[in-house]
Design brief:
homodimer; mainly alpha; DNA-binding
DNA sequence: TAAATTTGTTATGCAAGGCTAACATTTCGG
DNA sequence: CCGAAATGTTAGCCTTGCATAACAAATTTA
């Protein structure tokens, strides 16, 4: 059995696979290729690696499906993404696209521990509406 | 003239060079090697790249010095690092080492724009002491 | 100061992640 | 059902960043 650790790059591929399957019931390699701005060849390579690590089920010319392990991992990544994006967008007031793009980079780096704290902090800020409103007004 | 863009890895080398020169007036390759946990050979390679991009002055067996461009760039990176670490450590209440390590990863990703906003946010939180104290008490 | 140690460089190789081009397979439109 | 178009795969190559091993230079020390 091969190593279970995922690089940032493979996490991106897995996240994409998960989101597409969730939204459309299936994914095609070419969609991933377009979403991540990589060649079709690179997608094939990445999917083979994910399959080898048991995050997805995949074989030559076969449909792509996601394993339980893959779902679990994808959810973790997406949760990180959402917490980060929420903080940038709704606390700091960053424009959506920039918030999303940056969240995408950081989601592969941040620890579970910091993520949890940030998540609590987001919740806390939401409760204390005044605080954030005043910040946004530069007061 | 070669490309001026620095990879995360080269940013780490530059940051290390800058800090050491600031603290001790000079750097030796072997110190960088120890601080960044890489081989001496990798340091030589990285220093050559930084010199080629005009961030440092460097030649075979020569002293390492940093250019104005290098200083400017290093300050940017270190500022990012500090703002991030402050947020993790003093706002979220993360332990120093973890805060530093994560800041180190994110400093290469975050945009100037988000950095500025986060910096303002740090300042704002410092002013509103009560807010952060209550968060830390889980209220 | 000469030998030993430390530090720096070079040569070479490896893994990851990307690319293009050519080929294989599948899907779609007549 | 067949040919064209779309999609997927493979082969070969490139770049970055790292390593080790052997060699070169500098520094230390006996």
């Amino acid at each position: 059995m091969s190593d279970k650790v995922l690089s940032s790059s493979l996490e991106d591929y897995l996240e994409c696979v998960y989101n597409r399957i969730n939204q459309n019931g299936a994914v095609k390699a070419i969609e991933i290729s377009k979403e991540l701005n990589v060649s079709r060849a690179s997608v094939t390579e990445a999917l083979n690696k994910l399959a080898q690590k048991n995050y997805i089920n995949y074989g030559r010319y076969e449909m792509i499906s996601i394993t339980d392990l893959g779902i679990e991992k994808a959810k973790e990544i997406i949760n990180k993404h959402n917490v980060l994006q929420f903080f940038f967008e709704n606390i700091l007031g960053i424009e959506k696209n920039e918030a999303a793009k940056t969240a995408c980079g950081i989601e592969h780096i941040i620890t579970e521990n910091i993520l949890n704290k940030l998540s609590e902090f987001n919740d806390y800020c939401v409760k204390k509406t005044d605080f954030i409103n005043l910040f946004k007004q530069g007061k």
